[in-house]
Write a structure and sequence with these properties.
The protein is built from 11 helices and 9 strands. By secondary structure, it is an alpha+beta fold. Strands 1, 2, 3, 4, 5, 6, 7, 8 and 9 form a 9-stranded mixed beta sheet that branches. The longest helix is centred in the first third of the chain and has 51 residues.
Length: 324
């Protein structure tokens, strides 16, 4: 009986020891799981922080994002803004003449020269593309104009060779922006005809002998614009869905002094030619444009209209810089 009693106690002791060992293993495993979970949470938080740091504070405020917890896919908001699109027009040619390192150096040199003025004039960068960018100026109409002019002035001073290819498009309107992507990688996306219009104005500016193109809608937002700035009517935009047009102006204060002086000299005759052309009085329009080209043989916009006048002798069509 005594032997059995001792054996029973020994068995109980072994079982207790095994239980304690298992309990210790379970606790250790739980701690490991918690550490791994905590590590994953920290990594996820850092991932979110790293992604958010590439979104401007102004955009985060518009979206109502004040903390990491409020970041969620699909979050969106509407806002009114001036959109400034700036870029070079010969980027494809750079790919053929420069190596990869030279291209990236070129891009960063251009951005380093131009981007600081966006922030100086209270703008915010939305995105970079090629050697340029798209920026927002939230209801800061004249600040956007001043920024564009300062960029052109800086380029003329430090990189004058860029003046022939660098251009800016400016317009204003409503923009929708939202958070898109995946939990591993989020970004912002804008949906708006206004942003696409800014891109189009920048793209065609060189064709119309301009450094800065702006819409009449934006022009009318700035008090005493006519007294403050030098500009000329360059064409129209047609909004197909809304069945309306908006005039486009060449803000030639962004040009070199010699070009500005020539455009001042020819402005009345040039705009008279456009007016005749819009009225389908092609012969009168052509006479005006010939007078302009006599004074300024470099005026590409005038050459464009002369070509259209010749085409219109057979079939008339209005000149729309962009169609939406």
């Amino acid at each position: 009986m005594r032997f059995e009693f001792n054996l029973t106690h020994m068995t109980i002791g072994i079982l207790i020891m095994i239980s304690l060992i298992l309990f210790y293993i379970i606790i250790k495993q739980n701690r490991k799981i918690k550490r791994q979970k905590s590590k994953l949470e920290i990594e996820y938080t850092k991932s979110k922080e790293n992604q958010i740091q590439f979104i401007s504070k102004a955009i985060l405020n518009i979206l109502g994002i004040k903390s990491l917890e409020s970041v969620e896919l699909g979050k969106q908001a509407f806002f009114n803004s001036v959109i400034l699109e700036a870029n070079v027009s010969h980027f494809d040619q750079l790919n053929q003449t420069l190596n990869v390192n030279q291209i990236f150096n070129y891009i960063n040199e251009v951005l380093d020269l131009t981007v600081p003025y966006v922030y100086e004039f209270s703008g915010t960068i939305d995105s970079y593309k090629e050697a340029g960018f798209q920026a927002y100026f939230f209801d800061a109409y004249e600040m956007a104009i001043q920024c564009a002019l300062m960029i052109c002035e800086k380029i003329a001073e430090e990189r004058s060779e860029l003046l022939k290819t660098f251009s800016i498009g400016l317009c204003n309107g409503q923009v929708m922006i939202g958070i898109v992507g995946h939990k591993e990688r989020i970004s912002t996306l804008t949906l708006s005809n206004t942003t696409r219009l800014a891109t189009e104005l920048q793209r065609v500016a060189g064709r119309f002998y301009s450094r800065i193109l702006i819409t009449e809608t934006l022009k009318n937002k700035i008090p005493q614009f006519d007294k403050k700035y030098n500009y000329r009517w360059i064409g129209t935009i047609y909004f197909e869905k809304e069945k309306r047009v908006d005039k486009v102006y060449d803000l030639f204060d962004g040009d070199l002094a010699s070009t500005r002086n020539m455009k001042r000299k020819t402005k009345k005759m040039f705009e008279k030619g456009i007016q005749y052309y819009q009225l389908n009085e092609v012969d009168e329009a052509r006479r005006c444009f010939i007078e302009v080209i006599k004074m300024d043989k470099n005026d590409l916009a005038t050459k464009e209209y002369l070509y259209l006048c010749d085409q219109s002798r057979t079939e008339f069509s209005h000149v729309h810089i962009a169609v939406y």
